[in-house]
Amino acid sequence: MSLQEFWDYLVLGVMLGSLYAVIAIGYTLVYGVLQLINFAHSEVFMLGAYGSLIVLQLVNPGDNPTAVASIGFVALAMAGSALFGGVTAYGLEKVAYRPLRRRGAPRLIFLITAIGASFFLYNLAGKLFGRDPLPLPEMYDNHNVFTIFGAGVNITQLLQFATAVVMMIGLDLVVNRTKLGKGIRAVAQDAEVAGLMGVDIDKVISRTFIIGGVLGGVAGFLFANLNQVSYTMGFIPGITAFAAAVVGGIGNIRGAMFGGILIGIVETMTVPLLGDEWRSVSAMVVLILVLMFRPMGILGERVGRAA
Amino acid sequence: MLNKTIVKLAIPLAASALALTACGGDSGSGDGAVKIAFQGPLSGDNVALGENMQNGVKLAIDQANAKGDLDFKLEYVAGDDQGLPDKATAAAQKIIDDESVAAVVGPAFSGPTNTSSPLYAESGLVTVSPSATNPLLTDKENGFTSFLRGVPNDNMQGAGMATYYAKKLKAKKVYLIDDKTDYGVGLATVAEKGLKDAGITVVKKSVPQKTPDYSATAKDVVNSKADALIYAGYYQDLAPFAKKLKDAGYKGAGISGDGSNDMKFVELAGDAAENWFLTCPCTDATVEAGTKKFADDYQKEFGRAPGTYSAEAYDITNMIIAEIKKAGADVEREALRDALAKASYKGLTKTFSFGENGEFKGTDVYLYQVKGGKIGYQGNINELAG
Q1: Alpha-helix runs per DSSP H in chain A
Q2: How high is the ipTM of this complex?
Q3: Are B20 and A126 inside 8 Å of each other by CB?
Q4: Which of A69, A165, B56, B272 to pair with B118, CA 20 to 30 A apart?
Q5: For residue B315, what pLDDT is reported?
Q6: Which residues of A lie inside 8 Å of B (Cβ-Cβ)?
């Protein structure tokens, strides 16, 4: 691999990784407050993509929209995906997890419920929206805007990376600087004591799901913009992002970002070095190696402590 | 407040989900009716290909019933395998258990054919596939005694692609990708052999289905400096891949097989689909003179033009009906199987007859190209290559 090729793949890897990072945050946030692996998060991602598709079909960008209109369409699509993602995550918590929490169900029940909710949601999406993959309408004319280390970056990639970075910085600020963030950290550290100190635990958990859902939904839109929308699209990115969250340290927000980028780079570098069929294998090998030598993940475990 | 809203929303949703599932359950058997089943993807990612064929089968059955020269009534039975090998055995068993099923059109895909054919072989129920093209399916070792292939196998498509690249496009280096399915690997293996025999350098890669991001693969294609590309797989993966190839600045030729030969590919890939070559052992029913009337009938019945393998499925169904008519409505499954294996039937698309182990007799492969957002029919690939 020449140096130029290395930069090319590195840029692609970081782009993909930024998406994984945003999805991974959804897993990690929920784990932070509930110690629950929300396996239905991949469906939040998928429904976010359908949200943007529905909005775009309503407004219909048509052929060759102007630059200003393009920005408007992207913003609308993003809003649609955020809305769908947020509402889905909120609904999931209300319908699937809160009743269990009220009854003090064991952890395993939560996990099974999460998987059940995931099955229900993606099959429901298949019934409602059809099982054919659908294209996301073109919102702009995609072309290279600049080069970095000689690697061309086009609008889709720029949009994907910039949105991911803005969302990650925004989230970091919310968690570290706001009252809600303080609540999230408090619940993550010790829910019971946080409750005694006057933190409304239900509200904090509910909002944590909404934040994770909005991020997941927008990631769904960005992913659909790269590929296409289908009811099964959540599964593979979901599992990969979950692995990324664990690599970074499940429950640790910055860990999820770091893990996402790392897995993105590893997967992409695998393509020229070993071949496409080893992509998922290499991601999982990284996961296993990290777990062997640092079982709490690279950046450690808890939202409360590390963030 | 919000709790109630959620419940209000959830109840009709749940109810409609239940109602939809219930629809799948009714398959009331008529008295003394002879059934013809179709096994293929009627849900899941490849539903478009399955429906093309299902409609062809239905049309043939409806027309035969309407004609009024049968002393029995024909009925249609659907067997949905989602195009997945692990779902196929259940779909096949369901069809086999229905004793009034006389013959099966399908299975549509090679993978499901591989897993369900042992069941069919045991039951003696004949299956005639309009589209399962993996060469190994007719291997004697398998003992798929009930399987008849109504289509030239992948050897023909792969060989056709290689011939076209070697003779017509004079390619120097070809990047060859399979999607790790039975179909893709089979097609790619044959194409690789054909290309190497013609002295062309081949870079062969496997890219599994549903890869979340094809941009690295596309970059690899560009970096390899290949001047032509073969993708052996299905349209829902080729579409995002084609988009990434365009983004990566790939300028060479691209060709894919019948798994991608569907308008869905063009819809999903948009501009990126432009100029892609697509092969198929099937002719274009809307272009070829012999199938014009069929295309019109199909359009009238289903509100759209026939798709890939619609006409072939129609032909095969008519072939089965003709044999049942000869043998009578109470024909044994084994007897019908043996009769079909020996039969020769001149359909709208081609003549159907079978050689050893149910292999199709005949070799024609046809070339298509995406132009102006449409899949344009080019003609017989060997004649085009010259």
Answers
A1: 3-34, 41-59, 67-92, 98-102, 107-129, 155-177, 179-189, 191-196, 201-226, 235-248, 253-273, 279-293, 303-306
A2: 0.91
A3: no
A4: B56
A5: 95
A6: 5, 8-9, 12-13, 15-16, 91, 94-95, 124, 126-127, 131-135, 138, 142, 152, 154, 156-157, 223, 226-228, 230, 232, 235-237, 240, 267-268, 271-272, 275-277, 279-280
